[in-house]
Design goal:
Blueprint (H helix, E strand, L loop, with lengths): L1 H17 L3 H12 L4 H6 L9 H38 L18 H15 L3 E2 L5 E3 H4 L26 E3 L4 H10 L4 E10 L11 E11 L4 H16 L5 E8 L2 E10 L8 E2 L2 E2 L8 E10 L1 H6 L8 E8 H9 L5 H5 L2 H4 L3
Parallel strand pairs: 1-4
Antiparallel strand pairs: 2-3, 4-5, 5-11, 6-7, 7-10, 8-9, 10-11
Helix pairs in contact: 1-2, 1-4, 2-4, 5-10
The protein binds 2-{3-[(4-chloropyridin-2-yl)amino]phenoxy}-N-methylacetamide (2NL).
Length: 347
């Protein structure tokens, strides 16, 4: 029996030394030390021994068990360390591999043009103002002399929130200027850029949401000369010092007198044709419409608590999309809102 124990011990130790995985080691633990293991099998035969032999063999068997358990622990530590080592090696990060380059975006072309225009007006002393896109019809229409029944108030042209047509998506940024006039004393010199909404079907030149930039100057002795001086100065900064401008009479309910301002076509220099063909930039007109403007109607000043006997002012409004399309040579308005990076990357 003693020899049997020795044999099991040597065999087990050799097998444990050869085991190279936690699973193989566990198998050996079951095989030698488990309930149905080889050592247990030998111990079960103890009953056949004499009373003197039994404690000696018992001691020996316990010593073998202790040795094997010790060996198992030691081997387990070695295997675990090797497994960990291998895991660390396989998961190692090579910090010298070049990283994936991040594609940098840039400012949207609309914002590039808006920023340029704002910078020019700020340089002339204008303050940039911002306001709500959901407006009262009172600010958007009534105080601007746009009376009930005017076509622009029609439900087919304007997005309304209420059945009584009193709350709407602003159709112009003028309500912001009304809010300023209502609350501030002249001199007022402001620029109001922002989103505006009209029920237009989207096509090459229309979108139900677009951007407007409106300006307003109110003080004592403001004249049409101030209006022309300001607008010509700004357009020459945008389109070049040699840009030619003209003013045509027009009508708006909120200004009197009113005008529109055109720029001479930079492509055909006002002739309307290039090499005998109709100029594609101005469609043969020779001029490109830039904006509408005028002297603020005395009723509009009065509607905002400003005395038209003491103060006068000029106002203007332009479409940012039209400015950007002219400046960046974009032919279809929808491209501006699609945000296809192949388009955006060109600017
Ligand atoms: C256009 C051009 C314009 C204004 C906007 C304005 C604002 C106030 C008072 C008077 Cl608070 N006028 N804005 C003036 C003239 C033209 O926009 O083509 N609009 C339809």
């Amino acid at each position: 029996m003693k020899e049997q124990l020795e044999k099991i011990k040597l065999e087990a130790i050799a097998a444990m030394d050869a085991a190279d995985s936690p699973a193989a080691l566990d198998e050996l633990r079951v095989r030698y030390l488990g309930k149905k293991g080889e050592l247990t099998a030998v111990l079960k035969m103890m009953g056949k021994l004499s009373a003197e032999e039994r404690p000696v063999m018992g001691q020996l068997a316990n010593a073998v068990r202790a040795q094997l358990e010790e060996k198992l622990d030691a081997r387990k530590q070695v295997i675990d360390a090797a497994v960990l080592e291998q895991k660390l090696a396989s998961e190692a990060i090579d910090v010298t591999i070049p990283g994936k380059s991040v594609v940098m975006g840039h400012e949207h072309p609309m914002n590039q043009v808006l920023q340029e225009i704002k910078d020019i007006f700020v340089g002339l002393g204008y303050q940039i103002v911002d306001g709500p896109e959901i407006e009262l019809a009172d600010y958007n229409f009534t105080r601007l002399n746009i009376e009930e029944g005017h076509p622009s108030r029609d439900r087919s042209d304007t997005f309304y929130f209420t059945d009584d047509d009193s709350v709407l998506l602003r159709t112009q940024t003028s309500p912001m200027q009304i809010r300023v006039m209502e609350n501030a004393e002249p001199p007022i010199c402001i620029l109001a850029p922002g989103r505006v909404y009209r029920k237009d079907e989207a096509d090459a030149t229309h979108s139900p949401m677009f951007h407007q930039i409106e300006g307003l100057v109110v003080d004592e002795n403001i004249t049409m000369g101030d209006l022309k001086g300001a607008l010509v100065t700004v357009m020459r900064k945008i389109y070049g010092e040699d840009a030619q401008m003209r003013f045509r009479p027009h009508h708006f309910p909120f200004t009197e007198p009113s005008c529109e301002m055109d720029m001479q076509c930079h492509k055909c220099h006002g002739t309307g044709e290039i090499d005998g063909n109709v100029c594609s930039t101005c469609h043969g007109e020779g001029w490109i419409e830039l904006l509408g403007a005028g002297m603020v109607h005395p009723d509009v000043l009065r509607n905002c608590g400003i005395d038209p006997e003491k103060y006068s002012g000029f106002a203007f409004g332009m479409g940012l999309e039209r400015m950007a399309m002219g400046r960046l040579r974009i032919t279809d308005l929808r491209l501006i809102f699609d945000n296809d990076v192949r388009f955006l990357n060109q600017f």
